[in-house]
Design goal:
Elements lengths: L5 H15 L4 H10 L5 E8 L11 E5 L10 H14 L3 E4 L12 H12 L7 E3 L3 H4 L4 H10 L3 E2 L3 E7 L2 E7 L10 H5 L8 E4 L6 H4 L6 E4 L8 E2 L3 E2 L12 E5 L4 E5 L17 E8 L4
Parallel strand pairs: 1-14, 2-3, 3-4, 4-5, 7-8, 8-9, 9-13
Antiparallel strand pairs: 2-14, 6-7, 10-11, 12-13
Helix pairs in contact: 3-4, 4-6
Amino acid sequence: MKPMSRRKFIKRIFGSLLSLFGISGGTYYYAKHIEPSMLTVNEETISSPKLPSSFTNVKVLQFSDTHLGFHYDIDQFRALVQRIKEEQADLILFTGDLVDAPDQVSNRILEQAANLLQTIEAPLGKYWIYGNHDHGGYGTEKIASVMKLGGFTLLQNQHATIQKDGDSIVLAGLDDAMLGKPNIEETLKGSSSELFTLLMCHEPDYATKVSPYPVDVQLSGHSHGGQIQIPFFGYLITPPMAQKFVEGWHEIGSTPLSLYISRGIGTTRLPYRFLCKPEFTIHTLKSPHS
């Protein structure tokens, strides 16, 4: 007997669960053709006594996991970029997985993506980190080139100082935890623990390794929010390193570290979203000193 592929297995499980809960074939159509296009804007607040008053009301826009090439085309990406531009955010952060399979996306599509990214403006900068799909499929240099042409600065085990009105915060970025070589000590070397520190890390479960370090907030993607959520059952499947923490806010460790996980934009493995709409997030910074 020919072994069943992982994709076929997940599809069969999804169909079985729909049947179990008495959900119609129309819902299957909805999960494949409608909900994946129902982009939402999630609004969150990040508060910390370490945030300088000048950073109050700064808008940090996080988007993640577009997975261009897998049931997410350049026209959808163009609409996403336009929606991001409408938010007029101060700081733009991309938390990984630009394309689904870098070796299967044409150079023309990548060039178009770079040109679209280049049109996004943010006075405090545009930054990104690698996701596992960015490293996969011989994509490491290819995706770096696209993002650089798009005006985004890579943080790969590095940090940057974000300055506003003479005050500063730290923005740090880890290499991908699955296919890269993340190094939190190298990432934070030379930064001040007294400054508010925001870390981008693609895989949310890596937060358990980050929590002992002087990081205030970690922003992640990777999980897609489970992509398919079944009532009373929960997440149908989540990828490795997104199994402890799947979406939204979590507090980790004794300090604690605040972790936020975006459901992301695109899909992977299967082109479905059910009770798990795609999103990008506006994080508004708040200082108690203002």
